[in-house]
Predict the 3D structure of the following.
Amino acid sequence: MGALRTHVNVLDENQRKLDYKSIPCTMFGYGEQNGEKTYKVYDKGRKQVLLSHDVVFDETILSHVIRRVIQNN
């Protein structure tokens, strides 16, 4: 499996109405936190690995890659 572009929802008590509600990340695997399965993502801006349950996948990027693979075969 390759890396997938995702957005991780931000839960911050100090978050204001117009602040970003998600941060762009790259999913590269699965993890486990407190006995629960999570997505393992990398935040390039902060240069950190995050574990999150709340991930939204950018399907436009994925469909573009699939189309390219189909055309090359």
